[in-house]
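Tokens in:
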């Protein structure tokens, strides 16, 4: 198992659960959950604009529910749902894109919206409440699955995979702090996250993935602008940021910043962080579209934008007006961070065989790694073990690249479920 992020840990867990006798080795040069998984938004939902992804995430949420029960909810799973808010007076097109058996509620009474969601802008005309959603502690989930995997047949190696050779079995050249070592394996799972393409190249496989760096900001809500019981809330509408005339003129005169004066996409999202007694909030806005190469040290990521916190707060304030205070008086305590969305063009994961010689991939979990990790790991383990696969398995594997009609459908859709 190459990669100790949430996907690799989950796949290792389900492999260990499937067969206690087989030996599972988890290899990563970093500590578990310390790279992309450390930057997770930690939200989950079964709202997707396609049946395949709905079934996939429903299966993962079923597993999250099970693990929450078994662990006495060690990863703090909430169930407040998602709210999708819009200023449009007709949400028929949005609702039509949601598979029919997803539990939703459409609130089109502005009086009820004001009562239930007082923080929302008064211009909001419709709210769609996706009931099966909430948030978790992704770090705690990862640690729980890692601990549950521990046995005589489970081993971790801290090292960097430099080369893979072999045919009947694989020989992995691994650089460790004690020198180079060789690991022999009957099967390989590529769970290397943003580096999955690099691992695949060692096997002469090209994965159709790209890495896009997305940022988030969390800050202490000293003004209590966001109620602690507000669900994860998304503003669906495109927007222009509010600038003074002087600010707008200065931005327009700067070729590198002029884009900030144009209309920006929808998708600003916010939720309280830290539970009912916490004081922090998280904001996200996946507006970046530039592909970048992952850095070994994420602190050196060139795509991080120091202006993102202000941009995110300005965008969110158009939806949650109480946040306007933080435009002129930035929060004194905040955390600005980001991680790679490793994604396919259609924004679906890749889970399954990379070749016919025992090499598999579980990756491209763009922005939905924490919520989908359990189903992704379980599906990967089923592929490795040759077990019966769920109905959505082929669509989430490299096999879909041969399904021209499916790809045409997905790539023509404006809604890819990206947040």
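Residues out:
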């Amino acid at each position: 198992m190459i990669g100790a992020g949430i996907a690799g840990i989950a796949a290792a867990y389900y492999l260990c659960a499937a067969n206690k006798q087989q030996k599972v080795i988890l290899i990563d040069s970093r500590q578990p959950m310390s790279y992309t998984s450390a930057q997770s938004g930690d939200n989950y939902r079964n709202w997707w604009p396609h049946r395949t992804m709905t079934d996939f995430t429903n299966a993962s949420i079923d597993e999250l529910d099970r693990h929450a029960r078994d662990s006495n909810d060690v990863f703090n799973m909430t169930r407040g749902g998602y709210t999708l808010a819009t200023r449009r007076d007709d949400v028929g097109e949005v609702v039509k894109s949601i598979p029919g058996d997803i539990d939703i509620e459409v609130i089109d009474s502005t009086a009820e919206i004001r009562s239930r969601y007082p923080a929302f802008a008064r211009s909001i005309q419709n709210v769609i409440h996706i009931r099966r959603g909430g948030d978790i502690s992704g770090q705690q989930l990862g640690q729980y699955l890692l601990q549950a995997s521990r046995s005589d047949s489970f081993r971790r190696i801290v090292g960097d995979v430099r080369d893979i050779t072999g045919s009947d079995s694989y020989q992995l050249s691994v650089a460790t702090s004690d020198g180079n070592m060789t690991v022999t394996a009957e099967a390989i799972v590529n769970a290397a996250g943003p580096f999955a393409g690099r691992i695949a190249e060692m096997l002469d496989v090209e994965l159709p993935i790209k890495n896009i760096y997305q940022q988030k900001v969390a800050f202490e809500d000293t003004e209590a602008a966001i109620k602690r019981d507000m669900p994860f809330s998304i503003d669906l509408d495109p927007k222009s940021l509010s600038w003074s005339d002087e600010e707008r003129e200065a931005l327009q005169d700067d070729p590198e910043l002029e884009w900030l004066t144009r209309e920006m996409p929808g998708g600003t999202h916010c939720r309280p962080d830290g539970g009912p007694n916490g004081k922090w909030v998280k904001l996200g806005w996946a507006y970046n579209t530039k592909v970048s190469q992952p850095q070994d040290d994420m602190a050196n990521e060139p795509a991080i934008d120091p202006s993102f916190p202000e941009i995110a707060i300005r965008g969110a304030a158009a939806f949650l007006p109480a946040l306007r205070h933080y435009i002129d008086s930035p929060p004194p305590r905040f955390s600005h961070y980001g991680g790679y969305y490793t994604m396919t063009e259609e924004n679906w994961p890749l889970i399954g065989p990379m070749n016919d010689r025992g090499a598999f991939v579980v990756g491209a979990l763009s922005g939905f790694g924490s919520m989908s990790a359990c189903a992704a790991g379980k599906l990967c383990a089923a592929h490795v073990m040759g077990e019966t696969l769920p109905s959505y398995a082929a669509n989430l594997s490299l096999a879909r690249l041969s399904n021209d009609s499916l790809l045409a459908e997905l790539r023509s859709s404006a809604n890819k479920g990206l947040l």
